Amino acid sequence: MSATVVEARGATLPRIGFGTWLLYGPAATDGVRDALELGYRNVDTARFYENEIRVGMGIAESGVPREQIFLTSKVLLSPVWSARPDRARVARPDALRWETEDALRWETEDSLMKLDTDYLDLLLLHWPDPDVPLERTLATMVALREEGLIRQLGVSNFPPGMLRAACKLAPVFCNQVEYHPFLSQERLLDAARELDVLVTAHTPLARGRVTSDETLARIGARHGRTAIQVALRWLVEQDGVSVAAAATTHEWRVDNLAIFDFELTNDDRAEIARLPKDGRVVEPPWAPDWDA
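The structure corresponding to this sequence follows.
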């Protein structure tokens, strides 16, 4: 059985995190509180999600001591787009482009205020941006870590070449990327393991594709599990991988957490390996060259 925690650079976090993408208002507060009451101790949010206040309220209402929770947020480089699905997806003014160390520091301090916490366990750069020097942002993140505002720093949506470049500039703890049974991340995983960088899988259910896949459903039936649980189990069985899994209902949150009492067989893994691996679903206009 895979461990319920994973380690990188001497720090540990729970393999299964509660993702809060597309959770707003009371649903975000209730979801975070419920997840923590169920036993989640890894919570993932971002400034782009526009729900940090509600996430902080959920943490407070749960009664779980802050030091028992691994809390991640992300700061977004330009271009910045509207996060809410009910808004037109139009670019915000270029004035919000990061140009100075002060801007990054302000973003981080604002996240801390909204989340009602003194520190983040992990701060990620949400997307790479060729127009903003990586040296500047990572140096500022290192300074924030030295000041105790963040415990670990990392990146998100960085392909292997960009990850290697980032690791030459700072002690990168994590790279959060799209990863699920329909997308190969072999090159990135090889680089991350060489660099002792954690890989966190976002969008682990491929925006619903997992639920309708016959292969995953068949494997699940053999174990008395759902296709979703098979996909999550497949991820957490891999060395150096954790998962940020969103769930909008109590029942799904229960199911997502209940993946540590069964194990996939070699035949199961072989079937998943034969699934098409070209199913990237997160491809915004500002995405990097994934082959870089």
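Residues 79-98 have pLDDT under 50 and may be disordered.
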